[in-house]
Structures are given as C-alpha cells and as structure tokens.
Design goal:
The structure is a single chain. By secondary structure, the protein is an alpha/beta fold. Helices cover 54% and strands 9% of the residues. The strands form 2 sheets. A 5-stranded parallel β-sheet has the order 5-6-7-4-8, sandwiched between helices. It has a 3-stranded mixed β-sheet with strand order 1-2-3. α20 (406-422) packs across α22 and α21 crosses α22 (439-453). The protein is globular, with a radius of gyration of 26 Å.
Length: 472
C-alpha cells in the first residue's frame, strides 16, 4: 500500500469511526484491511466469514458512503475473507493504528495483541475485542478474588485432552470487580499458543452472531463453529435475551460440556438469579464451580493503585504518587476497580498537563466525584431464609417444604415478606425460590404480615430485628 493509499484509508476509517461510534467500530471494523483501490471499486478484507456477512448485511452503505467522501467515483465495495496465508502474514505485522493510539499499553502486551493466533477466531466466528492490558500479569490478587483467580488460572493452564476440572466455571460479582479482566486473561493465556481454540464473546456478541447467522442462512456453520471451540468464554451473561438465542446457548453449553470442552461464564449475579434464563440453563450453569468475587478490600484497592502507578511509569518515568495519596485513595474510593484506575489517570493528566507534582490536596480535588456513598448491602433470598429459619428455630428446608403447621407457616410468611421488601425480586421469582409456590401465595403472605406488623408489637420488633441482621 502506497503512502497516499495509507493516508486515504486512515481518513476513511476515521470517518467510519465517527459515523458508527467507537464501540461499533471496535467490534466490527477494527480488523478490516484495505487490499486495493481501483477506478470504481475498493477491495477490503476481513479475517472471518462471519464478519464479512455482518458488515455486508448491516454496514455496506455506510462503508461506501465513507469511501465516496474520499473518492466520489467509487460505486462498489468488494469485501472478501482473507486467506490463511494472508492472515499468517498479518500476524507478523505491527499492531494496527487503532491499537497504537493507546499510549498506556505496555509494549510486551501490544505484541501479544498483534500475534493472536488465527485459531482464536474460528472460521465462521469473530470474537469480541480483547484489551491487551487485561492479562494475569496485571491482575492484582487479594482475599476477595483469590478463589476466582486460582480457578481461572487452572482453566487457562489446561491443555487439549486434559480432563476438565470445573465445567462450567461461573464467576459473578458486581460491576468493576475484575470479572472481565479474568475472562480476558483466560483468553489471552489460552491463545498464546496454537494448541487450543479459545473464543471470547460477550452475551451481546453471541446474540448478534446468532441472529446474523439466521438472517444470512449460515446458522449451521455458526453452530458447528461454536461446537469446535476448545474453550468458550462468555461475558455478561445477564444480557442474554430471546428464547431462540437462549435455546441455542443452552444447546451449545450442553454440547461443549458433554464433549469435555471448557466453558467459562461471567455475570453480575449467581445462576439462580438469572430470571430471564430457562431453568435448564440455570441448572447447568450451577452444576459447575460457581465463584463470587467479593467487593475489594482496602488492602486490595491499595495494591491495584500501586500496580496502576507502576504501569503509568512505563510511559511517564517521572510520574510519582506519594504513599499518603495512595492510602487516601484506597480509603476514599470504595466502589470498584475502574474508579481506582480513573483516579490514577486523572492524577497523571493533571500532573503532566500542569507540570505539577501530585499532592494530597490535588488528589482530594481531582477525585471528589469518584467518592460515592456506600451502597447498601445487596440482600439475597438465601440469606433471608437462613436468618429467619435461625430466628424461629426451624430449618431452611422447612420453609421450602409444603408443611402447613403453624410453627412453619408464620416464619415462611415472614421470610416471603422480607424477600419482597428487601430485594428487587418479583413475586413469581420469590415464589419459585420458596419451593415453587405461586405468586398469589407470596402476595397473600406479604399482605398478611403487613397487616399483623401494624397491630402486633412483638411481631413488628421481630421483623425489625431480622432487617437489622440482614443489613449488617
């Protein structure tokens, strides 16, 4: 490609990025290359048939318009799939322009991104974009994530043909606590050689891929490609919607597990709380290893801050954050790891742009909007059942049973009432979690306890005591 063509292609990509937005561009166009420019047509290429099909179906007019702004005589875009030989050459090429734009990525990780083996993108699939910074080397381990990290490392270090220990591995936590970091680290580690085919997909990308395959009548190739993966990594499963898509995910999950292939899943809640998913899927997900990543403790937050400062120094050697500032940030910013990284980025920008050293006063001013009020504890129905059972000296299985004796009915009604008032679960979901009862039974229990609490001081005190125990 000549310098003129390279500049022209860069301008077209800039127009395309502005037109569709950064997220869409990264998902669908980051791996599109310019092959040739002819008098009335432009030849572009992508690495997979799936990407070609998706772009042709949804963005062909957009790509043509962006080229016509540069070359009005162009009337046709020819999009092809790069041959294996072409892909192999691309593996040895420098990182794309879009990757080089991020100055904070370490050079070694940049190289790993440029040399992802072709096997990681199966012939009919395109994985979701990976962040080169999200590796095991950059993951900070603490008490809240030790088990999740160990399980992810065990999965990543497996070899083709080894017996699968945890299948599926299901990791759940709140926002910004490291789920995606671990999943992408598994993918990077698995793709460091050509032995296994590891595919990372967000639930949204899985949905788009399946719908696109249905529209283009390539669903059989899509299914076969998924079943040929050695390690399937699915992120943000709570966003999986649609009965047909969920059914296909269920079939894929069963086929991979039954064939001894590894499945790794992350979501923001445990399998039993994924109310939109079919019971069979929830059951299969819960049948592996389910690991919760707890909120970050202060020591872990401090460790993350120190690691981010070290990473920043790789590009800005003079950048320094005094220990009292790091300790202040670790105490004050409690929400999630992304806020911690954002705080270091703000201090770096302020220090470099204003040529000033980082001080405690500067930090207090720059991160004031990241100091959020502590969120109330998320109460689980299992916790309610356990604490109510203990309070009334019955077992949790009694609460879920069909027993109708007075010593069980009242605690069961209290537990249902607390589930309705202290969680966001719907009446049908609460009924399902209490032994498969109908939502009308739950509604009756809630109204019954509401009426009694307003009249019975003893019961009112018991309910308030239970609420305090649950919220502590």
């Amino acid at each position: 490609m000549s310098n003129m063509e390279h500049d022209r292609w860069s301008r077209v990509k800039g127009r395309l990025r502005s037109s569709v937005g950064e997220d869409v561009y990264s998902s669908w166009f980051a791996r599109m290359d310019l092959e040739a420019v002819q008098p009335e047509s432009v030849h572009l290429s992508v690495p997979t048939r799936f990407l070609k099909s998706w772009i042709q179906t949804h963005y062909s007019d957009k790509v043509l318009t962006c080229w016509q702004a540069e070359l009005p005589e162009v009337c046709r875009i020819d999009l092809t799939v790069r041959s294996p030989m072409r892909a192999a050459v691309a593996k040895e090429a420098p990182a794309p322009v879009e990757q080089r734009r991020d100055e904070h990525r370490p050079a070694t990780e940049m190289r790993s991104h440029a040399t992802v083996p072709a096997s990681s993108n199966h012939d009919a699939l395109g994985g979701s974009p990976l962040d080169p910074r999200l590796t095991f080397a950059s993951f900070v381990v603490g008490r809240s994530n030790t088990l999740a990290h160990a399980a992810a490392r065990q999965v990543a270090e497996g070899r083709r043909g080894d017996p699968v220990m945890f299948n599926p591995l299901y990791i759940h936590s709140g926002v910004g606590l490291g789920k995606t970091h671990l999943l992408q680290a598994v993918t990077w580690s698995g793709n460091s050689g050509n032995e296994r085919k590891v595919l990372y997909l967000t639930a949204e990308k899985f949905m788009y891929g399946f719908v696109a395959a249905l529209k283009t009548q390539t669903s059989l190739a899509f299914k076969e490609a998924l079943r040929g993966i050695d390690v399937l990594v699915i992120d943000d499963l709570q966003f999986l919607q649609g009965k047909t898509t969920q059914a296909e995910f269920c079939h894929t999950l069963n086929a991979l597990i039954d064939a001894g292939r590894q499945v790794v899943v992350a979501a923001d809640r445990p399998p039993s709380d994924l109310e939109s998913l079919d019971e069979r899927v929830r059951s299969r997900l819960a049948g592996g290893l389910v690991v919760e990543m707890a909120p970050l403790g202060e020591d872990l937050r401090l460790g993350i801050l120190k690691s981010r400062v070290v990473a920043a120094r790789a590009h800005h050697a003079s950048f320094d954050v005094p220990a009292p500032v790091l300790e202040y940030l670790a105490r004050a910013i409690t929400h999630n790891g992304r806020d911690l990284e954002g705080a270091i980025n703000r201090l770096l920008a302020h220090s470099k742009l204003n040529a000033q050293p980082v001080t405690l006063e500067m930090a207090e001013h720059e991160v004031r909007d990241l100091i959020r009020p502590q969120e109330p504890k998320r109460i689980k129905i299992e916790d309610i059942q356990r604490i109510v059972a203990r309070q009334y000296n019955v077992s949790r299985s009694d609460l879920l049973s069909s027993r109708r004796t007075a010593n069980v009915v009242r605690p069961r009604q209290v537990a249902m009432y607390l589930a309705k008032t202290l969680t966001l679960r719907s009446l049908p979901e609460i009924g399902r979690r209490f032994g498969g009862r109908d939502h009308t039974t739950v509604l009756h229990a809630v109204r019954k306890i509401e009426g009694l609490v307003s009249k019975d001081t003893t019961l009112s005190d018991e309910v308030e005591s239970l609420k305090r125990q649950l919220q502590e």
